[in-house]
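Its record is quoted verbatim for completeness.
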Amino acid sequence: MGVIGAGAHPALGRLERADPWLKRAVPVLLGIFLITLGTTVFLQSRSDHQAALGQAATEATLIGQLAVNSLVDRPAHARQTGLDTFMQNLPAELDQTGRFLALADGDSAILGFAGGEYRPVGINTLHQLLGQDPALHALSADSGAVSATLPDETAVIASLHALGDGAHLAVIHTTQSILAASRQRSQSQFSLLAATIVVLIGLGAAYFLQASRARTADHVCQKVGRRIDSALNRGRCGLWDWDIARGRIYWSDSMYAMLGYTREDEFLSFGDVNDLIHPDDTDFFALADELAASRASVVDHEFRIRDIQGRWVWLRARAELVDDQDDGSRHLIGICVDVTDQRQLAQRTAEADMRLRDAVDAISEAFVLWDSGNRLVLCNSKFRELHGLDHAKAAPGTAYALVMAEADQPIVEQELPRNAGRETGARSFEAELADGRWLQINERRTGDGGYVSVGTDITALKRQEERLLDSERRLKATISDLRVSRQKLETQTQQLADLAERYLEQKAEAEGASRAKSEFLANMSHELRTPLNAIIGFAEVMESGIFGPLGNGKYGEYCHDIRSSGEYLLSVINDILDMSRIEAGRIKLEKQDIAVDEVIERASRMIGELARAKGLEFTIEKAPQARLFADERAIQQILVNLLQNAVKFTDDNGRIALRARIVNDAINLYVEDDGIGIPQEAMKKIGRPFEQVESEFSRTYQGSGLGLAIAKSLAALHGGNLRIRSQVGVGTIVLVHLPLNSYQALPHAA
């Protein structure tokens, strides 16, 4: 219900709901009434015609019998005269214009006619008169009257009567004359029906015209109501209609929407509204008593009311007391506007003004604001302090002349030269106070014609300026010294350039020496392998005694030591050769699709004998179906080197393990042991060629220190990496991370 429906009677609402059905029912009822009335008139006219025809048939039969009774005793030649006499003596109500009698002899020859104005032309016999109509030919003395058609197409009611000697008397009554009176009555009825239809159509047209005007008026009212409701909703307003006598209050839809409530009834009770209003803002009971006593007619009041979410909304009510013209009751009608934002804005403005005053008072500069009439508007404590003013002498509204008369005046006041060309009404100057402090005062005009003045304490700047002047003098003296130093610096720069050039030459020589060292080691290792293979081979032959015993048993032990030392030296040379080839970039990987489990199996077999010799527990965890695109020999060498280190640095009856794990698109190979571990200070050099944890004076384990460096370099060539985690006395874990689809990451020679 919007504004237009305010205060409407409930019956009006029911009528509005029934209005569409009434608009459809009225034309239907009018149509049914007109159809019923037309049908009734038609049936009544038809019944009247049937009654007239029935009465005419009865009269024809009766007149024929009476005529026969009056002519039966007369001779044949006197029957015509008797028939005329009968017709003359016939009662007036039976004598009709359209009825006539025809007298015929035994041969059916017509002797004469009597009564009526109708006479058939050229008819001499009764058979000619009756024509070929079967109904007329079927007539007999006892058949009564029937409806028929004469030869000249005249519709009649006819009856035939016998006179006893073969003569017949025919009574014929034309249908046109019979129905003349009935048709006149029918015309009157149809005229009355037509007039009724015209009247009803006029009433229906007037009804629909009035209904159309009512719909137009309703549409206009609804349109106006929607505009008012839209304006109220947009303006955060609500319509109030307070029936003071009945204690009920009407709210518009916009009022409900503004507070978030839903309309449950047309009116609100006085108590319902009073419960929603903040108790500190207004007393509705006192207001109701005052309005009832007519002590007030206009209300303009702000109060808080609770919305659907429990928040307090500030409303400003503007209403006027009016009298209802229908029942004489008094209503307080007006609007309530949401002023919450204005209240909050005013509060924020007051708070901002207070914060601004606090901020102005807290700044270190002297601040003063004058209005267009040169009266004090605002000044802070710094201004009062510098000019020796108290609150009474610097009260807002005091004239400029009075304030300056009470203020301490500066000793020196000088205009700053940089003010030239600035805007009109703005100036800056410096002033020295009596206590020796300096102020820089900037004045600017405000938009209302006043001006604002800000005084900044520049005492420190003034003193700094003096120090700067002194420094400038010293700086000029220093510049002359710097000119001399510049020449010395240019000489030193040339010397540094020469040193840098010699450094580059020495660096190139060092790199060449490193390459030469690597090539020398590679060549030397290659040269050493040939005699070592011979020494190892001959030692094996001598130890096995293929060509006979050596004599003393000590020779066998010596041969075994020679072979073991040779094999160890050969492994060291091989490591040196591999490391030098890697450093020289001469390693070429032959990558192919390999099964990881097979490589793990071969590496495990190569180390298994060493592990069993020390009584170590060797655990292997494979990665079924894992395949790697890599150099099979290089991967195997990585595992063998790491497993050899694990066996070497693990005490007897210890534990080593080799595990494989697939992680995303890579495979991780873990070599674990519970050996001596690696100190944290040695972790940085582990993995570098020829680097070992023990020094050459405290070494307890043999080795070249190249195994881990070779494994790390081979892993890098496959695009992977090697990481170590170790703790002294607990053990070591070496992780080799290899991509499943690895590519050579470092340059190599073909």
